[in-house]
Every structure is written in structure tokens, then in C-alpha cells.
Amino acid sequence: MLDNKKGTDLPFTKLPDAKCPAHAPADHPKVPPEKVGILLANLGTPDNYDYWSMRRYLNEFLSDRRVIDYAPWKWQPLLQLIILTKRPFSSGAAYKSIWNEDKGESPLMTITRDQTAAIRDKMVEVFGDKVEVDFCMRYGNPSTKAKVQEMVDKGCQKILFFPLYPHYAGATSATANDQFFRALMEQAWQPSARTVAPYFEHPEYIDALAQSVETAYAKAENRPDILVVSYHGMPQRYLRQGDPYHCQCQKTTRLLKERLGWADTDIVTTFQSVFGPEEWLRPYTVEHVAELAKQGKKRIAVMAPAFSADCIETLEEINEEIRESFEHAGGEEFTYIPCLNDDPAHIQALSTVIMDNLKGWLD
Questions:
Q1: Which residues of the chain fall short of a pLDDT of 70?
Q2: Spatial distance between the Cα atoms of 92 and 197, rounded to a whole number of angstroms
Q3: 81: exposed, middle or buried (Cβ count in 10 Å: 0-12, 13-18, 19+)
Q4: Which of the listed residues 104, 121, 186, 283 has the most CB atoms within 10 Å of its CB?
Q5: Is 320 exposed, middle or buried, given 0-12, 13-18 or 19+ CB atoms closer than 10 A?
Q6: What is the C-alpha separation between 64 and 285, in angstroms, rounded?
Q7: Are residues 288 and 295 in contact, defined by beta-carbon separation less than 8 angstroms?
Q8: Going by CATH, does the domain composed of 203-336 fall within 3.40.50.1400?
Q9: Bridge-partner residues for 117, per DSSP?
Q10: Considering the entire predicted model, what is its pTM?
């Protein structure tokens, strides 16, 4: 079995555990034992916060028609000539303020790697060497295409693809799946594939969220007057077109409220990260926290359940911009509740979701 493009043996023929199949002729290429790949996917991160790294990343992100669906003939001139001339500077400064300088990477990269390592330990404990666990990014590195190729080269004839978004949205789960399927299209021997559905109402996920709230409230010097549950926003138009994201976010908040045993007045749903001239899902977090302060809610807590890992939208936008909006309006105590990240309860919830989706492949 040769790579016709390069005229060389395929990568998996050189793996230490590759063997000639039983009953095959002696000159048959060696193949590795069949494995199942578990590929976690997150949004992505620039390689650095300098201008050109930011420009490359933003160009890939903002050129995705799932993210910005304006006609390219209208959008691309605006993007290339104006937005990508200016925005890499402001976005780079925001990333610099949260950058993990010790590891030379964004917090999202660090956390996603830690999540992957923890999930790998759990999967290996259950399935041994039958699984390969890794992660990729929709934008930037490590790319989906590269990681799919690595898994195929290691003998993964089945791949479970897991977008790390609790809630479905075209601009998150769908575009991650799109990229996964594009990668599969390039495989001569295409592995079987499954994608993991949103887990916004999974009991273990809700319980992990509730535990994070309970822990934060127990540490607070004064109990917050209200919990603001802030989700990443999207244009109102997407909801009218049938995207279920808004409804799934509302259900997560309701289930969290019920799990905590709270009243409706103890919790509120808002949406952040508004971009462009369109009307987005409301209320806007940055405006609503200021309104809460003016209404006499001087102590608030904010969490972001739509993010599986802390990133620019939480560490910079919530903990800096949104905090500032609240305090400038008269707010006194602002508590940011971190994303679930690699918390053991979160890793357990994600592992349960994975094992549910592996049924029939690995039991």
C-alpha cells in the first residue's frame, strides 16, 4: 500500500504495533491494530498576539460563512481592507492581557490540552489502548485536518468527533462539524464517523454548573444579589431562521435554577459579544449588568455556561469589560465564576457523554 502522491509507504506502515494481517501474503503492507479516535474540538486561538498572527486567525474566523453569512462580495472587501487592518491591534492587546506567557499560548489552548489529558486518562482506564484521544481547533492550530490525518495514520477506523459546545449553534457546533467532514473528504480510506450532539441539558453537566455556583457563593464574603448567566450572543435573525441556540440556553438556565432550588429573581439570562450592526439576542450582558446596578443590585455573580473553557470572551470581556460596566454604574461586588475547564465534575460529565456516544463501537 503506497502513497501514490509521494511514492512512499503510508505513515501507519511504520508504526511499532503495525503487523501484516492474518492470512495475507508476506509482502502485504503492515497495518496497525484498529482503534477508535476521540477528537475533541474547540473554537480556536491565534498562535500569538502579534499583528500578523492575529490577522491570520481573524481572517480564518471571520471568513467562515457560518459565522458571518453576508455575501462575500459585500463582506470580503470590508473585512480585508478595513476590519483586518485595525482589529488585529485591539484583539492582540486583549489577548496579551490574558496570555499564558509561561507556556507561550492562550488560556484556551492550555485548558483544552488539560481537559484532553484528563479525558484521555479516563478513556484509557476504561478502554485501554483501543482509543486515541486528542483535540483540534476549528480555527488556527492544531487544525482539524491535521488531527484527523494523525488519527487515521494511527489506525483509527472510527472517529468520534466532539465539539466542546454544550449548546448547538450554526456558528459553533455546525462549523466544527463542517470542518471535520471536509477533513474526511480527503481520506482515501475514510473512517466511520460520529458527531456528539449538544449536551446542554445533560444532568451531569447541569450538576457540574451548580457545583461551581455553590462553591463560588460559599467563598463570597457577601452573597450576590443575583446570578447573571451570560451566553455568547448571535443575531436575532439566526433564531428566526431556526437555530435552536437561544432556546437551549434558556433551558440550561432553567435547569440550573431548579437544581440550585432558587427563585426566578435569583438568576437571569443575558447574551454577550455583540458584533456588527444587526440586532442580537437580548438582553445584552454589558448593558444589563449596569441596569442591575442602577436597580440596586450592588452584588452580582456572572458565569458563562456556553463556554467549556475560559477564553478571551470570559477572561477579558466578562472579567474586564462587563465588570467595568457594572462598577461604573454603581455596582460594588462583582464575582466571576470561572468556566468548568478541567474541574473533575466537568471531566466526568464530558466522559459520560463520550462513553454514551461510543456505545456499539466500544462497550
A1: 1-31
A2: 33
A3: exposed
A4: 283
A5: middle
A6: 25
A7: no
A8: yes
A9: none
A10: 0.91
Domain extents in the chain: 203-336
Q: For residue range 26-82, what is the model confidence (pLDDT) as tens digits?
A: 665 666 779 999 999 999 999 999 999 999 999 999 999 999 999 999 999 999 999
pLDDT of residue 7: 41
Cell 460559599 -> residue: 218
Contacts for 283-289: CB closer than 8 Å, 24+ residues apart: 284/233, 285/228, 285/230, 285/318, 285/322, 286/321, 286/322, 286/325, 287/325, 288/228, 289/228, 289/322, 289/325, 289/326, 289/329, 289/331
> CB–CB of 318/301 below 8 Å?
no
